[in-house]
Amino acid sequence: MTEEILALAKKVWNYHLLRHALVKSDCILVLGSHDTRVAERGAELYLQGFAPLIVMSGGLGRLTKESFTQPEALLFAQIAMEHGVPKEAILIEDKSTNTGENVIFSRKFLAEKGLHPTNIILVQKPYMERRSFATFKKIWPEPNVCVTSPQISFEDYPTPSLPMEKVINVMVGDLQRIKLYAEKGFQIYQAIPDDVWQAFERLAQLGFDEQLIKE
User: Are 30 and 56 contacting, i.e. CB atoms less than 8 angstroms apart?
Assistant: First the structure.
């Protein structure tokens, strides 16, 4: 892992972060993933009083279907309860398999319960903040939404089960999707600065292409 790779990856990481200021909201929508620290962040926000309700959203996606034995939402709910969130404050949507479905299914699920939130806090991984926001606003434009993630630096984010190489691969794939999915109408448009796109191209050239969509 060279200094060049780390510098390029940090540039991409910083682009993905939105750094929204959080406000008290009607619910916290936690998007499932392979990173259980996302559930811990959702629990933290609930316990700080940011919203009276948490929706855990996620079945088994492309990165968890081979490593998880239960839907992401069920595991995330368990983690939240272990951190002190009461069971009655948690709603579970466990059928979605990607970010778009997280939003579509959660919106439908809440509506069926007579819930129509006007302010939502979206919780995701750090390098998926921007893509999650862009997807949410395309599919469900009406609520005010702010996005947050585990408060962990780029350098401290990797774990033994999520090494830096994998983090960079997934992060590069997510940046490509910000561009391609906007063109396909799956997300709202997000401007990508030239230096960020150049970092993406260089990382792909260096072999960080495992999560890229082959066109």
Answer: yes
